[in-house]
TrEMBL record:
SMART domains: Glyco_32 (SM00640)
GO annotation, cellular component aspect: extracellular region; fungal-type vacuole
Entry protein name: Invertase
Taxonomic lineage: Eukaryota, Fungi, Dikarya, Ascomycota, Saccharomycotina
Species name: Hyphopichia burtonii NRRL Y-1933
UniProt key word Secreted: no
InterPro entries associated with the record: ConA-like_dom_sf (IPR013320), Glyco_hydro_32 (IPR001362), Glyco_hydro_32_AS (IPR018053), Glyco_hydro_32_C (IPR013189), Glyco_hydro_32_N (IPR013148), Glyco_hydro_beta-prop_sf (IPR023296)
Length: 513
């Protein structure tokens, strides 16, 4: 199988073709997965098929309308490279029009603990889906696949877990080697509980413990629990992910996480801090891939939208995209000059070709100068390394700004740095889409490196921007919507004062997809 690494300005790209090729005048992203038509939200059942060398994603899907509505299905797509996705047929369908196949996960039952498989099914393709069914109340059900994840048969004795609740959903299941059992984390959403269950066979579940901590919001959703390595050591920690919606600190939807230890029964955090995965408004319901080779690390995808406005964004026959795949690791990071905290490090993973490149180094930027780049496709990446050398002398007047605009310059987003607050901001208000919850200005505090430098990597993909600060210590994902036919094809780095910012390097790559 192929080994993935972070593609930050590497010229060793492979040419790929996007699964959802944009039509003329269509602002559909090319690097981020989008459905052919209809509505998509949470990613579900992510797994890697070792035998076929194939990545599978499933997702909450309404193929009939571009908004959330029942019946709700599991949509399906596959990829050889985590970049080019092929649309597949519906994977799991509800039995009635007034119900949905809600969020869940997939495991590979290598040892046939469930008894669903015979020797004709390769152990690496013994696919079992665990999902929430909401026919009347919310229960956890099973379905298994005999063809590697394309079609599913529902278990005749569903549900396998029923606590008589209308707010009990989103199971994430994995095999815990140390305790020799399947583990399920699932939420009692409006009781703010992540419940941990164990099973020998995926059919019979025993309650182990509750985890109740964090920023509450209105409800918990889409939990996850996975072991993640600590960079530069032979150690690892377990990370508990919990989505909240509505009630995020930035409004609407977000993901929080907790770092700790797990013994097969109970998750114990190492501290009482609530950490947030992404500081933007459009990163929710993340899920990690199952059955990934150790060399490929811990990989995850999220829904790149927000429930505050997801049903109303100005796309035509389709709505929503998924984030880029991210590789997760842990490292000790300076939260301020006096404290280091163990932190989730996030690195984007994708493969594409480079169509055009611009790179400049060692520049002290003046107010009369700018660094300009054009990317006709509306798809490009950039990496910026800089220091603020005298900006505090001018209080809030000195900013470093990257304007990303349409070809005519009339529509734009603005990404910049304020040296007084040591904060980065994104302003998406100069675009035509207006919604009271579509926050125009967002910000993120980022601690500089020990020498005062900042490093930012960004991916712009037609109507979404993903930002990674200081090698993935902080991430920020936001959508934006230019008018039909306009794409973010120009980038301009500038400042409003002379000799305030030293640009160690700035690089742009237009990406060919």
């Amino acid at each position: 199988m192929m080994r993935f690494s972070v593609l930050l300005f590497s010229l060793l790209y492979t040419t790929m073709v996007s699964a959802a090729t944009a039509a003329a005048g269509d602002n559909r992203p090319l690097l981020h997965y989008t459905p052919e038509k209809g509505w998509m939200n949470d990613p579900n059942g992510l797994f890697y098929d070792k035998k076929a060398d194939l990545w599978h994603i499933y997702f909450q899907y309404n193929p009939h309308d571009p908004f959330w509505n029942q019946p709700l299905y599991w949509g399906h797509a596959t990829s050889k490279d985590l970049t080019t996705w092929n649309h597949e047929k519906l994977a799991i369908s509800p039995d009635r029009d007034d119900e949905g196949i809600f969020s869940g996960s997939i495991v590979i039952d290598h040892n046939n603990t469930s008894g669903f498989f015979d020797d004709s099914i390769d152990p690496d393709q013994r696919v079992v889906a665990i999902y929430t069914n909401n026919a009347d109340i919310q229960t956890q059900d099973l379905a298994y696949s005999l063809d590697g994840g394309y079609t599913f048969t529902k278990f005749h004795n569903n549900p396998v877990l029923d606590v008589n609740s209308t707010q009990f959903r989103d199971p994430k299941v994995f095999w815990h080697q140390h305790s020799n059992q399947w583990i399920m984390v699932v939420v009692k959403s409006q009781e703010y509980k992540v419940q941990i269950f164990g099973s020998p066979d995926l059919k019979n579940w025993k309650f182990h413990s509750n985890f109740t901590a964090g920023y509450p919001g209105f409800q918990f959703e889409c939990p996850g629990l996975i072991e993640i390595p600590i960079t530069g050591t032979n150690e690892s920690k377990w990370v508990m992910f919990i989505a909240i919606n509505p009630g995020s600190p930035v409004g609407g939807s977000t993901n929080q996480y907790f770092i700790g230890d797990f013994d097969g029964v109970e998750f114990k955090p190492i501290d009482h801090f609530t950490r947030f995965v992404d500081l933007g408004k459009d990163y929710y319901a993340l899920q990690t891939f199952s059955d990934v080779e150790k060399a490929d690390g811990v990989l995850a995808i999220a829904w790149a939208s927000n429930w505050q406005y997801a049903n109303n964004v100005p796309t035509k026959e389709w709505r929503s995209s998924l984030s880029l795949t991210r590789n997760f690791s842990l490292d000790y990071v300076a939260a301020n000059p006096e404290s280091k905290l163990l932190t989730l490090i996030q690195t984007p993973v994708f493969q594409t070709d480079v169509a055009k490149t611009l790179e400049k180094k060692n520049i002290t930027l003046s107010a009369n100068d700018s660094i300009d780049f054009e990317a006709d496709s509306g798809v490009f990446e950039f990496e910026l390394k800089f220091k603020a050398i005298n900006a505090l002398a001018h209080s809030d007047l000195a900013n470093l700004d990257l304007y990303i605009s349409s070809a005519d310059g009339k529509e734009s987003i603005r990404f910049g740095y304020d040296p007084v607050g040591q904060s980065f901001y994104l302003d998406r208000s100069n675009t035509p889409y207006k919604n009271p919850y579509f926050t125009g200005q967002l910000s993120a505090y980022v601690e500089p490196s020990s020498d005062g430098q900042y490093k930012i990597y960004g991916v712009v993909d037609r109507n979404i921007i993903e930002l990674y600060f200081n090698d993935g210590v902080t991430a920020m994902t936001n959508t934006f919507f230019m008018s039909e036919g306009n794409t973010p094809s120009r980038a301009q780095l500038k400042t409003n004062f002379d000799d305030e910012f030293y640009i160690e390097s700035i690089s742009f790559n237009e990406l060919s997809v």
